[in-house]
Design goal:
It is a single chain. By secondary structure, the protein is α/β, with parallel strands linked by helices. The protein has a single domain, classed as Aldolase class I (TIM Barrel, Alpha-Beta Barrel). Helix content is 37%, strand content 26%. The protein contains eleven helices and twelve strands. Strands 1-4-5-6-7-10-11-12 form an eight-stranded parallel β-barrel, surrounded by five helices. β7 and β8 form a beta hairpin. The longest helix is centred in the middle third of the chain and has 11 residues. The N and C termini lie close together (10 Å).
């Protein structure tokens, strides 16, 4: 299991929100590129980059920061936020982003997943499955779909996705731990790598995750607030 630090960008800063809600910033740090470099220097093998402005409708605001991050980091970057078309995903991959994370776009049209996987390789295409009350949610976690996470995971695997980012929205940003059952159900349903996010707030949480078949875990608030020591997490 790899530990993937999160860098979420909003208004040119590295931030951490509570349950993805604008205006709930608990962390605000200038110069996201320096933040990303610090994680790399501490031993991160991958970076999780989210363009929150893009997710909220403005996918141009942070373009220079994203380009700088890709240029200055040597570790792979998986990125999501504001990817609303095949063209958006293509531009990011051509810029040097290692893997794109597709959310609502993939939910609304699985052919997009197939087309991008065929063109760039399935390992470059990650689908975000966000769960709230046991159902997949889209559009910034505001709309529920009719599918469960295992059902949608299998659909996306069949469409050509090379991996899944599973976020348990019920626990995201709260630093109160999480329920392992939904993750285990997803892991049983698919054969592609799964990365988990949401509520991870202690080394004990990481021990629970490392006992599963999960490929990696994204950690944000717990790292920035000192709940988890990054070097200790890597040693684990």
């Amino acid at each position: 299991m790899i530990i993937i630090p999160a860098v979420d960008i909003k208004n040119g800063k590295c931030v951490q929100l509570v349950q993805g809600q604008p205006g709930t910033e608990q962390v605000e740090i200038d110069n996201p590129v320096e933040v990303a470099l610090s994680w790399q220097n501490m031993g991160a093998k991958m970076l999780h980059l989210i363009d929150l402005d893009g997710a909220f409708g403005d996918n141009q605001r942070n373009q220079e920061i994203i380009k700088s991050m890709v240029t200055e980091l040597s570790i792979p970057i998986q990125m999501g936020g504001g990817i609303r078309s095949i063209d958006d995903a293509t531009k990011l991959l051509q810029t040097g982003v290692e893997r794109v994370i597709l959310g609502t776009l993939a939910m609304e049209n699985q052919d997009v997943v197939t087309q991008l996987s065929n063109e760039f390789g399935s390992e470059k295409i990650i689908v975000a499955l966000d769960s709230k009350d046991g159902q997949v949610v889209v559009r910034g976690w505001t709309e529920k779909t009719q599918q469960s996470v295992p059902e949608m995971g299998k659909i996306m695997e069949d469409a050509g996705a090379g991996g899944i980012l599973f976020t348990n929205v019920d626990y995201e940003g709260l630093l109160e731990g999480f329920n392992i059952a939904p993750l285990n159900e997803l892991l049983k349903a698919v054969n592609i790598p799964v990365v988990y996010a949401g509520g991870v707030s202690s080394i004990d949480d990481l021990k629970i995750l490392s006992s599963t078949e999960v490929y990696g875990v994204v950690i944000g608030s717990a790292l920035y607030k000192g709940k988890i020591d990054f070097e200790e997490a890597l040693n684990l």
